[in-house]
Amino acid sequence: MSDKDFYYTITQPGMAEFKDRGSKFIAYSYPIATTADFKARLEEIKKEHPKATHHCFAYRLGINDDAFRVSDAGEPSGTAGKPILGQIDSKQLTNALVIVVRYFGGTLLGVPGLINAYKTSASLVLQVTPIVQKVVEEKYTAAFNYLQMNEVMMAIKQLGCAVISQETNLFCRMTIGIPRNRKEEALYRLGDIRDLELEKVDSPRVGD
Fold it and tell me: Among 39, 60, 107, 155, which one is most buried in terms of CB atoms within 10 A?
């Protein structure tokens, strides 16, 4: 369980190029929220660059440091995916994917040359991709009477909470993301609303 209040990510894609001894490396950065997002992006790149020699990548997801994946995609082990991930981690990013496409130029770069090329490519694309700080939210479900909707919505707005889902009937049920750095204030304020039932949902959420 992470105790971070904030995290860093990217919200738009970027692209950069690097060349070394005839080989061309094209790096792409993408914001992703799930492994399905990653798979879709990788498929797009493979369709866009079907004749590329390699499609190497690394990504990190979530706020716990165990959700990541790297691939050398046929390059010597440890020469592509790890250097790319190293650049993602050097900027403390999560929910971020970097894919580096290589067109072989006829000259072998050797292990140090490959590590440098993939590291530099990833570094260049992250330099041109805006990095943003976002808040970590804790998920709660709130159950309340429909007549209290205005009071609940006003509190949620003033506390900077996110509405993740809601069911509106005579008795309403709402899943909200409470910013971790305002949790005590939010629980006190929402707990003050008559007959509102608040229940924590297990895993923390990275806000939109």
Answer: 60
Q: Which residues does residue 96 pair with via DSSP β-bridges, in sequence order? A: 31, 60
Half-sphere exposure of 69 (CA within 13 A, CB side): 14
Domain residue spans in the chain? 6-129, 136-206
Say if pTM beats, i.e. exceeds, 0.90: no
CATH topology of domain 136-206: Alpha-Beta Plaits (3.30.70)
pLDDT, averaged in runs of 10, over the chain (208 residues): 79 98 98 96 98 98 88 97 98 97 96 98 98 93 94 96 93 95 94 92 64
CATH superfamily to which 6-129 belongs? Impact, N-terminal domain (3.30.230.30)
